[in-house]
Amino acid sequence: MTTPTTISTTTAAAPASLRLENLGRRIGDRAILDGVNLAVAPGECLALLGPSGCGKSTVLRLIAGLDAPDAGRILLDGDDITERPPARRQVAMVFQSYALYPHLSVARNLSLGMEVRGVPRGERDREVATVLQLLQLAEMGQRRPAELSGGQRQRVALARALLRRPRVFLLDEPMSNLDAQLREELRPQLRAILCGGSAPVVYVTHDQQEAMGIADRIAVLQDGRVQQCGTPQELYQAPANLIVAGFIGRPQINLLPQPDGTVLGLRPEHLVAVTEGGLPVRVLSREWHGASQQLLVASPQGELRWTCAGNLSIGAELRLGWAREHEHRFVQTTGQRC
Amino acid sequence: MSGTHRQRMALGRSALVALLLLWSLGPMLWQLYTSLRSADALLLGSAGLGGGWTLANYTDVLSGDPPFWRYMLNSTVVGALSTLFTLALAIPCAYALSRRGGLLRLLVGGGLLAAAVFPYVLLFLALLEVARQLGLANNLLALSLPYAGLSLPLAVLLLQAAFAELPVELEENALLEGFSLLQRLRWILLPLMGPAVASTGLLVFLFSWNEFPIALTWLSRSELLTLAPAMARIAGSSVFTVPYGAFAAATVLGSLPLLALLLLFQRQIVAGLTQGAIKG
User: How far is B165 from chain A (nearest CA, A)?
Assistant: First the structure.
């Protein structure tokens, strides 16, 4: 007899894939979601990225069954689960607040769901011990959630999601209550634990850096629509419209309206100092970041953000150029890439 | 200078506290004192504080026919049943109400509030008619029905507020984990509502313990009387004397179970009453 040493996220069923077809959700006159189409492959991590109020949490709640769409279908492995009650969808969700049961110990938080689903005692204890080990919580089993640090609570929430053996993982801003350093530490751990299994992962965040760091693909959501869906590289290299261009990349892309009715997009990190040609600029302010400095410069076309490796002081005057392949052009009226 | 000022402040505060304590506890201490004095000592005041102490009032009350503990038992039975009925009905109502939004909740909440503040004394004649028609007089089980009915509006309102305050994600997570409605209540919601349930239950129990007009009109057989009408009977038992001592002893005995309950649930009650105090 062998005891499992890792929790696998596989289920008895075949690898799942998640498809959202033309999902719509309205509240009153307001369209929260308007024709959302997305597909997530088994083991793939899709980040839903967008400002607050863009409908990204609504997408999660529709997948979980906590909310019902007004239009469209949700398919899991080809099964239409749009009408299925949440308890029978076999999805796990990590809430922003973690939603740990405050009156129960960590171990009980983890085992109660299995108990309710009729998993026998011995198996429950074994699985809880394994997952506590996996998430470095072995000593924490008897503590209450209130006695844990933020990072530990987050891992307990993750452990509980793992024990559900879900067909889809849903994470709603799981790191937004943690400080920046902890977020960076946890990102690779989270990826290692969740992604690459057989369940699709949908990860909601408003932080583009987190989305780039954790996701295989990113869907940028605004005004209830998917603005673009692709790998982080695709979104960075060829943003489909002004919204995506503004959302991906830090510092934010420079957008310069041109006389011909287009908008020229230039990323701060693609500007270089040149001896002749280009734009004459003067340094207005600077932030020093060690490896680079972040400058705001005045040019005849307006103020520009520039990430520069050198060390320039305020008031310095020089000329800025860029390579042709780094130009992004958008139609001014529609915002679409041209 | 500021030292003496602070001392004077502290002194003033202590005096104020002492005054408040005297005000709220004074009548009870007076009853306790009265219950332990012989009739002569009370009426003539001749014995002084050195003599005239007696337990006779207690033995009298307890050896009456029926003995006083019988009334306490009756009140306990009625109180426990009313509390049980009320909570059993109020918890599901409150849950449902707290999970509904908008107009319905507003309307039902308003209706409940109106019912909760309605002076129930106006109802007891009508209730008496109901009791007669249905043959519910002289039945302790039946008495707890109007009590539960009258307590229900306030209980639903209190519990509804407590349900509304629980983070909705807790229940949503349980839903995704496969909990049924009853399992969610049993394992997640009710354990977190302990204080609210305890304080609501205690309010219901208190109401039933103190209720007088309905008990007086529904119960006539003396072995079925609850405390309130029984005490009234003791007070009016003789034309020629007022049995101060016996009445005081009955009062003290009658408040002991409540005192015990309060001590037992003190922590929960305080937590329950202050719950939501800081929510804007």
Answer: 14
